[in-house]
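User: quick one, sequence for these tokens?
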């Protein structure tokens, strides 16, 4: 490296490298003027995206010379940079596809009235943190004839053709759409992205949020909220919208997609005016909501996978700039995809509620969405709080409106997935959202949020005492609450929730004063972080709840302890019905109630799910929240399925797999199984589980196809009861 000519003033050589064939360039080194000689120093580039095609771009420039006598520009240079050779060494890091969320399933009818079943699966690439959301059409998927086996539906294959890099295993299945690829083919300017800013900053307890287009045209307004310099705010907005990014869709880590169609509540249970509301929105477009760590909650068309809009919560605006780094030479933001910042990482939930959505003093029926952010904290400029839930009015799926954002000074990471229900207060109805204070919260609390205002309606602090040591934890109630309507009148009667200290709470919501009681306390104080599943025994004079939950579910829980899965009857005196665990941890428990053991360090992470008198739960040993995605020997997950009731009482608590206590997964799963539709030949409900390595598995029960019966001349509308619950197909006469 050097120069040709008599001088080196005004000469320059710049090196750029790309690992994706030149789609994204990263500056490497620059030599100019008197520094046109290699001195042995190595220039290192850390790529911010994944790629498999390494290319180099060398830019050689020379300043225009002047005639030595007339000083007139010559139109060129008498000297030139010279490059004889260059050498590149590189380190290649294998990429994988991962998921700590689970899938959603749903049906739709095409234009010729054929019913299709889609499985919508979220995942992300690491390294690179690229988000994926792929829908598989499994309408005619065939199953193995083996009774009770796990059948792989799809797995990662980076040698596969196309851009989705997925291998489809069973016949009759194919990729219906790939939301990330569809988004990548759109221009950043064509996207619809909203945010919300406060109408007033004078009273933080009553502030109202107004929607604003997150666009460069609003840079002057947004500048003080994103806290970026005047000259960089438009570039930051463009970057968040997708410019100068190797992949527009941010990584989807813990957020499980939610499929939502027209309203489907029971008219009698919901109340006055609901039937008219349901009828008015019977043709509402089916959509998929999912949070991503690109700062947004996304709304996709369920049938096509096209993004309808994205929404950036107000409290995350100031944090957006952490997603990238300012490149002085390019004058633009570039993705810093090695950091993996968290933003909207919670599970969205929706509910039809009767509230005042616009503050005019009149209540109306509406569909609202509430979502937490888990580790996606972002300090609100208005409140100076960090951990939030946000709510949107999504009655019109193409015109979402911000309602409120909820936080308290005690709130920790918002891992608790909200549960929405109606309670009776005197003679009036009140719609509330119940959440826990979260991971690493300052207090051990459960909240009821007034859905009209987004303010605290009720809270309870149970105190923080480690049962084993008496030491106070900075982690408390991160579990999701379970609401139960015992008499099926539309009003919730019970709230159940676990905590980090091995206690299961019960709140009787029919009482004038809500005071929790602890109906179970783990003898050794092992954490309960699963949302309890509930089966109601209605055979007697009064309904009796049976609760199902496990212990463990935290990376910090001891690896050498013995954990349990517990079935608890909440009768006049709470009684353990059966366990899968260590008998010595349960004083006076009959041997007949012990239905197996968990291995040392085997923890219950996922929320159990009940379907057709069977409770499904999964376990694994080792960690899953740490950034390392290696699964060591002995840490693979297990899928259990136990009878909750049976005509033969001796089978209650025993495995449906017969002599096998469980089925072994390929890796492990952070989330619970997902229930699909009933299918024929033989008639049974599909059960799916997505593993850490993004492998999608189906539990087969011996042959058949995935065909959903659809009589000629009948139209089926997709109705969603609630997140991770059974999807109902309700016949709608044409």
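Assistant:
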């Amino acid at each position: 490296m050097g120069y040709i000519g008599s001088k080196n003033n005004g000469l320059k050589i710049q090196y750029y490298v790309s690992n994706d064939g030149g789609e994204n360039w990263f500056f490497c080194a620059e030599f100019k003027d008197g520094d046109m000689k290699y001195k042995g120093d190595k220039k290192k580039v850390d790529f911010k995206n994944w790629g498999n095609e390494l290319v180099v771009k060398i830019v050689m420039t020379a300043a225009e010379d002047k005639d030595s006598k007339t000083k007139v520009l010559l139109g060129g240079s008498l000297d030139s940079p010279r490059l004889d050779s260059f050498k590149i060494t590189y380190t290649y890091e294998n990429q994988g596809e991962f998921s700590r969320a689970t899938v959603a399933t749903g049906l739709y009818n095409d234009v010729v009235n054929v019913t299709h079943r889609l499985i919508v699966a979220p995942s992300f690439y690491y390294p690179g943190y690229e988000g994926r959301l792929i829908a598989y059409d499994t309408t005619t998927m065939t199953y193995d004839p083996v009774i009770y086996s796990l059948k792989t539906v799809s797995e990662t294959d980076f040698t596969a053709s196309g851009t989705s890099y997925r291998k489809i295993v069973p016949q009759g299945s194919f990729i219906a759409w790939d939301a990330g690829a569809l988004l990548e083919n759109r221009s950043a300017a064509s996207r619809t992205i909203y945010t919300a800013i406060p109408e007033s900053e004078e009273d933080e307890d009553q502030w109202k949020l107004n929607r604003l287009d997150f666009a460069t045209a609003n840079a002057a307004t947004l500048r003080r909220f994103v806290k970026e310099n005047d000259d960089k705010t438009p570039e930051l907005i463009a970057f968040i919208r997708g410019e100068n990014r190797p992949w527009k869709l941010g990584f989807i880590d813990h957020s499980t997609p939610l499929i939502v169609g027209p309203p489907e509540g029971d008219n009698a249970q919901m109340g006055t005016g609901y039937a008219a509301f349901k009828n008015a929105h019977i043709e509402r477009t089916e959509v998929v909501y999912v949070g991503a760590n690109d700062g947004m909650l996304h709304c996709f068309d369920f049938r096509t996978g096209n993004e309808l809009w994205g929404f950036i919560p107000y409290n995350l605006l100031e944090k957006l700039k952490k997603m990238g780094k300012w490149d002085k030479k390019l004058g633009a933001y570039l993705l810093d995809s090695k950091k993996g910042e968290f933003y909207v990482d919670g599970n969205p939930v929706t509910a039809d509620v009767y509230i005042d959505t616009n503050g005019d003093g009149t209540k109306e029926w509406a569909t609202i969405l509430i979502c937490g952010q888990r580790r996606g904290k972002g300090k609100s400029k208005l409140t100076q709080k960090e951990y939030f839930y946000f709510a949107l009015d999504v009655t019109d799926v193409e015109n979402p409106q911000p309602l409120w954002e909820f936080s308290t000074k005690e709130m920790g990471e918002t891992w608790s997935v909200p549960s929405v229900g109606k309670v009776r207060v005197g003679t009036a109805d009140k719609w509330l959202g119940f959440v826990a204070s979260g991971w690493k919260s300052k207090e051990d609390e459960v909240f009821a949020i007034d859905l009209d205002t987004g303010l605290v309606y009720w809270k309870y602090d149970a105190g923080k005492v480690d049962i084993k040591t008496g030491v106070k934890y900075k982690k408390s109630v991160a579990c999701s609450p379970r609401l139960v309507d015992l008499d099926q009148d539309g009003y919730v009667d019970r709230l159940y929730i676990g905590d980090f200290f091995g206690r299961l709470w019960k709140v009787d919501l029919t009482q004038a004063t809500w005071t929790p009681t602890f109906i179970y306390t783990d003898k050794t104080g092992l954490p309960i972080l699963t949302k309890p599943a509930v089966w109601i025994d209605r055979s007697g004079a009064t309904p009796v709840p049976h609760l199902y939950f496990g212990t463990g579910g935290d990376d910090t829980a001891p690896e050498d302890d013995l954990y349990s899965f517990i079935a608890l009857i909440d009768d006049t005196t709470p009684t353990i019905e059966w366990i899968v665990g260590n008998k010595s941890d349960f004083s006076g428990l009959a041997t007949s109630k012990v239905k197996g053991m968990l291995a040392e360090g085997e923890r219950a992470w996922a929320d159990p799910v009940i379907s057709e008198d069977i409770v499904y739960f999964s376990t694994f040993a080792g960690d899953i929240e740490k950034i390392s995605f290696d699964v060591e020997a002995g840490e693979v997950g297990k899928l259990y399925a136990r009878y909750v009731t049976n005509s033969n009482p001796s089978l209650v608590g025993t495995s449906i797999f017969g002599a096998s206590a469980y089925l072994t997964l390929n890796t492990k799963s952070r989330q619970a199984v997902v229930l699909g539709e009933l299918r024929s030949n033989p008639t049974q409900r599909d059960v799916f589980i997505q593993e850490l390595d993004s492998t999608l598995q189906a539990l087969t029960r011996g042959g058949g196809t995935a065909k959903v019966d659809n009589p000629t001349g009948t139209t089926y509308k997709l109705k969603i009861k609630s997140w991770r619950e059974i999807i109902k197909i309700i016949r709608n006469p044409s």
